Amino acid sequence: MSDHKHDEHAASNPTSPATGRTSPAAAADLPGDPARRTFIRGSALAGLVGAGGLIGGLGLERTAQASDHDKMPEDHVASGQLDEYYGFWSGGQSGEMRILGVPSMRELMRIPVFNPDFAIGWGITNESKRVLGKGFPAGGDAHHPHGSQTHGHYDGRYLFINDKAGTRVARIRLDVMRTDKITKIPNVQAIHGLRVQREPRTGYVFANAEFRIPTPNDGRDLDAPAKYQAMFTALNGDTMEVAWQVIVDGNLDNTDCDYAGKYAASTCYNSEGAVDLAGMMRSERDWVVVFNLARIEAAVKAGKFTRIGSSKVPVLDGRHGSPLTMYIPVPKSPHGLNASPDGKYFAANGKLSPTVTLMAWSKVDDYFAGRLKDPRGAVVAEPQLGLGPLHTAYDNRGNAYTTLFIDSQMAKWNIADAIAAYAGKKVNYLRQKLDVAYQPGHCHTSLGETRDADGKWLVSLNKFSKDRFLPTGPLHPDLDQLIDISGDKMVLVADAPVFSEPHDAIILPRRMVMDKIKRKWDRKDPFFAETVAQARKHGVVLEKDSKVVRAGRKVFVYMTSSAPKYGLSEFKVKKGDEVTVVVTNIDQVEDLTHGFCLTDYGINMEISPQETSSVTFVANQPGVYWYYCTFFCHALHLEMRGRMLVEA
Ligand code: RUQ
Ligand code: CUA
Questions:
Q1: Closest ligand by atom to 335 CA
Q2: pTM, whole model, 2 decimals?
Q3: Which of 191, 195, 335 is the best mutation target for the ligand 1 pocket, counting ligand atoms within 8 Å of the beta carbon and taking the most?
Q4: Under 8 Å CB-to-CB from 222, ≥6 apart: which residues?
Q5: Which tens digits make up the pLDDT trace of 499-548?
Q6: For residues 603 and 129, what is the distance between their CA atoms, to the nearest angstrom?
Q7: What are the chain's domains?
C-alpha cells in the first residue's frame, strides 16, 4: 500500500516552475525511487521476521507523509525524497570525511579517516588499526577530498583526502564508504593540496607538501632555513605507494592537473624562502610550478634521482633550471589552483592580489618544446575580481566562479571575455558578484572538476557564520551556502551550518554513486579478510561458530550477532590474558547494524550486516564486565548483551 502511495506521489511531481529543472523524483533515469522501495520492503520484511520492527514502522510512516514539496524552494528535498547529488565534504581538523545530500545539504554520514571514532570503532578495531598503521596519531587535518577519475570522468572507485597535520594521504572505498589505505608521506611535512590524475585514469594522486624542512629532518640544519625544502609527491592510486617526489623552490600550496595526463601544477608561495609572515609576503611575485610527468618518469627510469635516509622513494631535483619543471611567475602568494573542465586552462587565485591568473596548457606544451622562452607567456588572462581570490570553480557554459575571501563575495566571470580583455579588447568579463556570508574559502560546482561539469549547483564554503544561526557558545559552526547557477544569475538558496571545518567538497550525481554502493558487506571483503583467515586457522567458521579458542595467554572469542542475540551470552578469561573478540553480524536485513561495546574497557565497534569486526585488548581487571549492543536493532535491543568473566 505504501509503495503505491509513493508511486503516485512521484508521478504527480512536476517540473519545477521556478527554474524548469526537473525535480529529483520525476527524473526517470535515476534509480532513487526503486531503491527507496527496496529499502521499504527490506524494513517491512524485517518487521515480519521480528528484527528491526520498530525502524521498519517508522520508515513507512515517514514516506506516507511526504507531500507538498512542489511548493517548496528548489533546494527543498521533501520527506521521503532523495537528493539528486552526493556531496563529499572534508571534515578539516575533525580528521573525517562527511557525506552530504545536495541540494538538501543534510549530513547523511560521517566516514572516519584520520580520527578515532567510538561509534564505528575506528582506531579501536583490528581492521581499522591495520589501515591506520602502528602508533597512528590521535587525529588529522583533512582538507581536500577528490574522487578517482577515468578519462576525466568520475569512475566511482575511490575518494582520496590529505592529512596536513600528519603528512598523510588516505583512500576511501566508495562501495562501502570506508577508509582502506593510509600512506605516510616521507621526506616532507604537512600534505596540503591534493588532486588526482584524470587521464588516462587515477593513476597518480598528487600531493603537495606545504612546509619546508631540512632533508633529512633529523636534527641537522635546524637554524639554516636556506637549506629547508618542500617537495611535490606523486602516489600510485592503486597501491597507495609513493611513486616519486620532486624538490621545488618555495612552499607548495594547492595543486591540480590537466585533462591530457601530461602535467600537474601547484601554486607556490614564499618564493622568498622566509620562515616568518613578513618575510613570506615581501615579494610581489610567486609562482605556479608545472611538473612534466613524462620527463619525471623518464628521469626516474634513467636513475637520475637520489634517496633520502631510509626511504626508498626516488627524489628528483625540480628547482629552478630543472628540465622537469616550469616556473610561471604569478602575483602574489597564490592559493587555489583550478583546471577548467574544457581541458584548456588552469587558474591560480591571487589571495594577496585581486586577480586570478589564467594559463593555457597549450602554452605549457610550447614551453617544454622550446617554442616559448618566457614562462610568463603561458598566461592568457588575468581578470581583476576583488579582494582575496582563493578558489575558482567552473560551469559547462564557459564561466568561472571565484571566491573573494576579504570581500565575502562570489565573483562570476566569463573565461572567453577575460581572455579577450587581456588581449586588449574592451569587454566586460565580470558577470555578477554575489554576497556570501562570511569569508568564503573554497567553492565547488557540481561535477566541476570533471568533463561532466553540469552548471547546476555551486557551494560556497564560508569560514565564519557569526550571526546566521542560533548561538552555540564561543565556537561557531562554519557556514556552507548553496547557490543555484543553472540560470543567468547566481541565486543563493540555502545556508547549512557545518562542524569545523570543511575546506573543500566535491559533488557527484547520485546515479554514479548509488550504482556502486553495497548495502551489505560481502563476506569475502578484503577489509576483514585477515580476521577471517585467522579464524580459519582456529577451525572457526565465522558465520556459524560461537566459541572460545585459547592459545596460551591469548584468548580468541568468536561470536555471531543476530538480532537480538550474540552467539555467546558469556565467556571466561583470566586476568592478564590478551583477548581478541571477533563478532560477525549474520543478519541479512539491510540497515540492521549491531554494536559491541565492552563496558569500562573503552571498547565499542560497529558490525553492519554480514560484516566481521574484531578488537584485541588485555583483560587487566578481574570481575564481571557486560558487553552490549550499541546500535538500536530490535525491540529487544536493550537485552542484547552478555558477560565477560575475568578470573583473578
Ligand atoms: S585550502 S581556503 Cu586547505 Cu584548500 Cu583554500
Ligand atoms: Cu543488536 Cu542492538
A1: 1
A2: 0.89
A3: 335
A4: 214
A5: 999 999 999 999 999 999 999 999 999 999 999 999 999 999 999 999 99
A6: 14
A7: 527-647 (2.60.40.420)
